[in-house]
Input
Amino acid sequence: SQKIEQNSEALNIQEGKTATLTCNYTNYSPAYLQWYRQDPGRGPVFLLLIRENEKEKRKERLKVTFDTTLKQSLFHITASQPADSATYLCALDREYGQNFVFGPGTRLSVLP
Amino acid sequence: DVKVTQSSRYLVKRTGEKVFLECVQDMDHENMFWYRQDPGLGLRLIYFSYDVKMKEKGDIPEGYSVSREKKERFSLILESASTNQTSMYLCASSLDAVQGLYEQYFGPGTRLTVT
Output
């Protein structure tokens, strides 16, 4: 059956460290993978998209990797700050970018 | 700035009532989506629409219907609300993927409680 897993439900790290979040999937073949941030009581906000032929994508302190062989994406936040505390969702493309399925999310807490 | 608005932030309805959730986007997006979000289950796609008057079933369409009479508006209808439809409902929109832009813009959500 198809499944998307994101490492742990919650992750605590110290301010200034690099946070690494994992998205693993089975029985999907996404052409695109996205990462979103969601704050409590609000809708998700798009952060990054990576294509299947891209190994890595960066945006400021964010970095995403996409390994279609391992069926895994890693999301890194470098020099993390308490303001980075939120739930992070990965989303896999199901229909050439028209339709995405979301993972359950990882709640990140950056401790001062 | 893209804006997706939802008609209510909080809604309380009784079992058996017909419920309408409205979503409006102001960026001329082709695609619109309705999700529900529950603890431990994540975001699940209910219905989506690629164009006016078009609709496609998502992963959990049972108990729901949708309407898209105008490009900017996408309505979710609960024909006869039940307690297991208590949830956070999120609307989203995106440009046509043919244009190479796939990010979804989400509304603030409607927390629906069915008693």
Remarks:
- DSSP finds no helices and eleven strands in chain B.
- Chain B has a mean pLDDT of 92.
